[in-house]
Design goal:
This protein has 102 residues and is mostly beta strands. The protein has one domain: Immunoglobulin-like (Sandwich), CATH 2.60.40. Helix content is 6%, strand content 61%. The protein contains one helix and nine strands. It has one helix spanning 32-37; strands at 6-8, 12-19, 26-30, 38-44, 49-53, 56-61, 69-77, 81-89, 92-101. The strands form two sheets. A six-stranded mixed beta sheet has the order 1-9-8-3-6-5. A three-stranded antiparallel beta sheet has the order 2-7-4. The radius of gyration is 14 Å and the shape is elongated.
Length: 102
C-alpha cells in the first residue's frame, strides 16, 4: 500500500493498493478519520460492493486466484494539519498519518 505522508490542502492525491492473487474476496478498509481527511473522488477499478465492517467502510473486489489486483484511489485533501486515520487490507488495519500543509 502506497500512502502519502505529506500533502497540500485541497491538493489531489493518490493511494495505490496492490492485492495479491487470492481465491477469497479482496477488501480494503478505511475509517471515519480517512473520510474526514480525504474526499474520495474515484476508485479504479470500481469495487464490486461497499460494506461496513467493524465500524469501517470496506471496499470489496472479486477474487482471482491467478492475478494480483492494483487499485488506485484518487483523493483530495479536506483539512490541513496532522491528520490520522486507519487503513488496511483484509484484517490488517494500521494507523496512518499525513501532514496536510495549508
Amino acid at each position: 500500500m502506497e500512502v502519502p505522508a505529506i500533502s497540500r490542502w485541497h491538493a489531489p492525491e493518490t493511494i495505490k493498493i496492490t492485492f495479491d492473487a487470492s481465491a477469497d474476496v479482496r477488501t480494503f478498509l478505511v475509517d471515519e478519520g480517512f473520510h474526514r481527511t480525504f474526499s474520495l473522488e474515484t476508485i479504479d477499478p470500481r469495487p464490486s460492493e461497499t460494506v461496513v465492517v467493524g465500524g469501517r467502510t470496506g471496499y470489496r473486489f472479486p477474487a482471482d486466484p491467478r492475478a494480483k489486483l492494483a487499485v488506485m484511489l484518487r483523493l483530495q485533501t479536506q483539512r490541513p494539519w496532522l491528520r490520522k486515520y486507519h487503513i488496511g487490507i483484509g484484517t490488517e488495519v494500521v494507523n496512518q498519518s499525513v501532514f496536510v500543509f495549508p
